[in-house]
Amino acid sequence: MSHSTSTPEVGREDAAAGARRPDEDGVFSHRQILTIVAGLMVAMFLAALDQTIVSTAIRTIADDLQGYDLQVWATTAFLITSTISTPLYGKLSDIYGRRPFYLFAIAVFVVGSVLCGLADSMYQLAAYRAVQGIGAGGLMSLALAIIGDIVPPRQRSRYQGYFMAVFGMSSVLGPVIGGFFAGQGSLFGLDGWRWIFLVNVPLGALAFAAVYRVLHLPHQRREHRVDWPGALALVTFVVPLLVIAEQGRLWGWASGRALLCYAVGAVGLVLFVTIERAYGAEALLPLRLFRNRSFTVATMGSVVVGAAMFGGLLLLPQYLQIVQGSSATVAGLQMIPLVLGIMIGAMSSGLTISRTGRYRVFPLLGTTLMTGALLSLSFVVGAETSVWTLVPFMVALGIGLGFNFQPAVLAVQNAVPPREMGVATSSVTFFRQMGATVGTAALLSVLFSRLPVEIEESVATAAATDPRVAQAAEDGQLPAGAALSDTSFIQELPEFLALPFKVGFSDSIDLVFLIAAGAAAVGFLVFLFLPQLELSDKSGIQAAREADEQTAGAPEAEDPEEQVRQAVGAAAPTSTAPPAGRPGDAATH
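Request: output the structure for the sequence above.
Response:
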């Protein structure tokens, strides 16, 4: 009796699971794709929201944990582990499949969030943020790789545009939610700021359940060596670079600790390149990918655009808070025009690419808009500039950013073998994040090195024309230009005393916007070399199956590199099928 009742239930479960899998040709229906995308969007919202919500409240957190001078390590720890783990997720998911690693990433992120919510010191918070970063490293790159698996390149950018909408929503909601929780002394018996991390638990549970239920991708496991030596060498190379990028301004770029970081990073780079050459096709980041023009141009462009992109995203909120006097929450709302621009750029470019198959034009248009917007901001931004004056430039900058989010990833996914979709996608994400980190460090270094000089000149000019400023300066009521670790005092000064500081900050940020515009212009020059390839009408799963079928009928090449070349030839949308024999066989006929 019990057997007869359980059989239909098992049958229904099998039928439900089968309905979530592709057909015999590896094709997913539009409804299936939307269901999977919905699950991925929840997980991506989790990661994107965390970055903006924490940055809003980090000062409150640091004060409560009595570690204001240590707060940067909480950010650095997260940045290091998320950056390092990104290429690892890409490579391992190519070998063992996406689903288990995506579920692992969500689970680790949630566990790290719970630990952060229970931290009792800044040292504990930094360690737990490192755990959180391990999970965050897979949430973005694996989501893009999964879309590459299930959607043909011609239609892919349409769905990737949904992810940009998630990014835009998190940019607005993060500061608002972070400001709300940080402003609560206690909530349900816990410090208000702890809910900034604990709110990830229900979101993470929802994301885990959604991905576990809807994501069922066929995957054929391959025997591979895992490039753990390459991973260790990458850690040796990247960690000192990220540390000096975050700490260099405080340590001094030529200090002993900075020089040690440079030296260790250089040794790590040499070791990484040597190991990757030795591992060949099984390397964590196969060096032969750089012989692919689309891959090389896209990764180089991502580095440069990442620097310009995050420069603009970081500096505008600082200007709004310090000069305009906005709170973090209000500044987040004032960034809505830029977020709308990102969503417009991402969605419109995705739809256009789907209709026309042309993607190369969008990085060029995007970097042009970014250059123009940042250049205009360098002239427009001032101590008494209206926020409404900035709106058109924020929209233009956002559209430029939206144009640049998708095409680099799309170009790489379309040009590499389907079995390397994960490592190629994660590499673009990795290089963009590295560019953003180094670029942000460089721009902040310029800002804080110019700030004391500009403020001193501004105060001197104001004192020459306003006796009240001169008297305040003589009485020592104004802080020295270098004593700017806390800028909140500016909002407490009378307007005639605050104005010289706002002028000095505005003049300093003008120079930084100008440098960011130069970086965006370099990005334009790089993307000029991006080839326009025909977009395949096959998803990554379909292309991988076809490559396997075609190479299965040919004699197996003894040379691993030749095996890769055969796979590329079988899957490339602009290529004919590879020859059936080994190289040189044709010459004998």
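Confidence is low (pLDDT under 50) at residues 1-7, 556-589.
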